[in-house]
Specification:
Elements lengths: L26 H4 L20 H10 L3 H14 L6 H15 L6 H8 L3 H11 L4 H18 L6 H7 L5 H12 L3 H6 L1
Organism: Dokdonella soli
Protein name: HTH araC/xylS-type domain-containing protein
Keywords: DNA-binding, Transcription, Transcription regulation
Length: 188
Amino acid sequence: MQLGRFVRELKDRDRIFGIKFHPGAFYPFLRTSVSSIANTTIPATQVFANATEAEREVLACDDDQGMVETAARFLAAHRPPLDPQADSVRRVVEDIVNDRSITRVEHLVARFEIQERTLQRLFDRYVGASPRWVIKRYRVHEALEQITAGLPTDWATLAQDLGYFDQAHFINDFRKLVGCSPAEYARV
């Protein structure tokens, strides 16, 4: 999981194939806190002993659909037992995504009747980032949607609507995730 902005440049005929897990779903495969690999790269063989062969099979496919099907078969063959905590964390993140009124960790604590420290530990283990970071990320995504839609934007009001104490904190978080200020992004 990358917690900041990242760029990958492909040249010539290179290609990338990635697998995106639902929040909380990678921990049962990894079997250690997802935060331990945040902002890093680890070889797939660290998680799956036979990943090298699977990688060859995926990259040998002629099209994207074949790659997806091959990777899905590999993951299904290595599916760990169901983890009810992973499902609980996924539901919390889905609420963050779908309910724009969630702008603070306290909102989650009240909604899910869970201690803040317990929630932090669950997110550290299953998501790899704090609940606060996840909330901020999705609120910045909301800002991106509004800017991309061309809606008139008063940055101070938008920052307040997204749960920020002030415009400066919002702009700082936006810049960390996107790589430029909201005003610069709107001009592009």
